[in-house]
């Protein structure tokens, strides 16, 4: 029997819908095709253990899993749940009705539980754009995805919950987040505030002007003068995030896996302070499995480079284009991704 389920792949900060097709035929082997990486090929062992521990059967026939479109490389373990759901449906252990109306994503534990995924917000935005009814994902990511209106978001804890939901035995609780209420309730809730600083009137005046105009700043002074303390408090005097900026910032942090389970939106301007031993790729983003770098995580916020002369020259050179264009394009042989990088640069050094 052939069954289709739907997942999603994130490239840059945009998502692409992936169709997972599972066919069961006479035979004995397990095949997975469609440019999967090692983590996806290993999913067979996680899925088999999870199904057994949840009292389901792994079919002892030929299983062919195709991930379409086949020319896009799929990476990570978040397709475990997509594939496992299709296997259950194809083997007749679960109803197929309405399966094509949902995006299903999640990493399986061996006991059938679910681990959080990266990029839940971009996936939810794309799912709504393509007309899907709902999005089923691990409970830890549910609040993050639920800020997208007109999309039913269900956070689940186990593969049993999904099978029960489609079989009509279990009612899943829909995660609902009032985006505007969430945004305005926690707006400007900073841990460190500029009003904590006593004295230092000249430098405070300079930083206020810089924050008002979005100018880059360099602080030069002896150790202990308060350079780092002042820099950490810069976001608290910058204009509050707009809801559009908040969503854009949340997408980047979601893709990087920096969101906490209790978070729905990033409502304060980011402050990133990388160590001076940072590499070029860690700063600007990229890698074999592309991820946003520190300059993108500081988007709409502050990037603080402490001890500026200690940074490698190559690291500082790669910041030229992002500072001018407010975005970074990472080009490799197989892909090109764009990350936004509109940040305020604050640097400090000793005389």
Could you tell me the radius of gyration in angstroms? 23 Å
Number of domains: 2
CATH architecture of the largest domain: 3-Layer(aba) Sandwich
Q: How far apart lie the N and C ends?
A: 72 Å
The CATH class of the largest domain turns out to be Alpha Beta
Give the mean pLDDT.
92
Structure description:
- By secondary structure, the chain is α/β, with parallel strands linked by helices.
- The chain has helices at about 40, 45-55, 80-90, 120-130, 140-145, 160-165, 180-185, 200-215, 225-230, 245-255, 280-285, 295, 315, 320-325, and strands at about 1-10, 15-25, 30-35, 60-70, 100-105, 105-110, 115, 135-140, 150-155, 215-220, 270, 285, 290, 300-305, 325-330, 335-340, 345-350.
- A 4-stranded mixed sheet has the order 1-2-4-3.
- Helix 2 (about 45-55) crosses helix 3 (about 80-90).
- About 40% of the residues are buried.
- The model has no long low-confidence stretch (mean pLDDT about 90).
